[in-house]
Amino acid sequence: MNRRRPVQARSHDTVQRILDAAHDVLAERGYHDCSTNRIADAAGISKGSLYQYFSDKDDVLVRLADRIAEDITAQISQQIDRNLGPDWQVLAAAVLDAVFDAVDQHSPVLRTMLADAPQLRVLERMESITARAVDVGRTYIALNRAQFRAELDVDATLAVLVAGLTAIMSDYLQGTSPIEQSRLKKALRQLTLNALVPDGR
């Protein structure tokens, strides 16, 4: 009988419990008060058990940041799959909604990571998240070229749009943007239209 899989499953479950606990503690107490003791207590395990899987607090939080990035990417991918069709504006709106909704879901944790733990490289992870949308956008434009500007420089335009979205999300997470989310999404949609479609239609 193979006993390895149950052990691996328990290890995976324990790691996920630790990450769930770290998410909650970080959201409630902030980076500086998010200790391995508090994470272990919230996970219902001993500190020694936590150290079987992670070397220190930042090791836990790096893995948590990776998991958040994976979750956001999965939500974006799900919306792309649901809305992939002939109307690219529907797809673009769905992707923007997915990005903002997913970031909102994790905003207390991402905000703390961004402000107090630059070593976690949250902005770099945000850029990696947008790579999925860029790849889909490039493929979609190639397959539906007649819908878009004849002179369109696809790579440069997508790079500018992604850089703008990343900068806006950074301001949004840090609370430095004075503009509400609905207005930001509307402006991003219009900028995308103007960049990609003749006469911005």
UniProtKB/TrEMBL annotation:
Top-level taxonomic group: Bacteria
UniProt cross-references to InterPro entries, sorted A to Z: DNA-bd_HTH_TetR-type_CS (IPR023772), Homeodomain-like_sf (IPR009057), HTH-type_TetR-like_transc_reg (IPR050109), HTH_TetR (IPR001647)
Residue intervals of the HTH tetR-type domain: 12-72
DNA-binding region: 35-54
Segments crossing the lipid bilayer: none
Protein's UniProt keywords contain Nucleotide-binding: no
GO molecular-function term, one example from the UniProt record: DNA-binding transcription factor activity
Keyword Electron transport belongs to the record: no
Keywords, in A-Z order: DNA-binding
Name of this chain's protein: AcrR family transcriptional regulator
